[in-house]
Amino acid sequence: MAVMNPLGSRNIIIIDDNYIGEYSQAYMEVGKQIDDIIIKYIGILKGIIDDGSMKGLTAEKLYSFADTASMLLFKTAGVLCDNNKSNMQKFIQDIDEADREIY
User: Fold this and answer.
1) Cβ partners under 8 Å of residue 1, min gap 6
2) pTM, whole model, 2 decimals?
3) How confident is the model over 23-47, as pLDDT tens digits?
4) Is 9 within a domain?
5) How far apart are CA 1 and CA 24, in angstroms?
6) Rounded distance between C-alpha atoms, residue 59 and residue 72, angstroms
7) Residue 4 lies in a domain
8) Phi/psi of residue 15, each to 5°?
9) How far apart are CA 67 and CA 47, in angstroms?
10) 9: pLDDT confidence band, cut at 50, 70 and 90?
11) Alpha helices, DSSP H only, in 51-103?
12) For residue 9, what are the CA distances in angstroms to 2, 6, 12, 54?
């Protein structure tokens, strides 16, 4: 978390590494939950077809949709959350490097 505090004619930015670390981990957990929901959803779609309750063109289209959804959505949330976590960690590293250059 970055907090701006006025100090005379300067502003100080305080960056809490732990806060950013906690939120980057929370993003990863949410991404995994979303991926799990998508996997379950695709399984339900394919299960409807596989149990034989749906046949013909409708079944073919539903199966095609499930395959497309699988390709497009599978691991998408997890990848985005992983990228976000990496960006947050890089931000901390960049700030630490800038601090070393100043001090």
Assistant:
1) 14, 15, 16, 19, 20
2) 0.64
3) 888 888 888 888 888 889 888 988 8
4) no
5) 12
6) 20
7) no
8) -115, 120
9) 12
10) low
11) 56-73, 76-102
12) 19, 7, 10, 72
How far apart CA 79 and CA 19 sit, in angstroms, is 21
In whole angstroms, give the CA distance from residue 94 to residue 91. 5
CA-only gyration radius of the chain, Å = 23
> Is the torsion defined by CA of 40, 45, 46, 49 positive or negative?
positive
Query: Which two structure tokens, joined as six digits, stand for 29?
Result: 């957990």
Provide the residue range defining the domain that includes 77: 17-102
Sign of CA dihedral 66, 37, 28, 1: positive
**CA torsion 58→62→67→68, rounded to 10°?**
100
Answer yes or no: is 89 within a domain. yes
What is the DSSP code (8-state) at residue 103? -
> How many whole angstroms separate alpha carbon 66 and alpha carbon 73?
10
Asked whether residue 3 is assigned to any structural domain, the reply reads no
Number of domains in the chain: 1
User: Tokens 């959350």 label which residue?
Assistant: 81
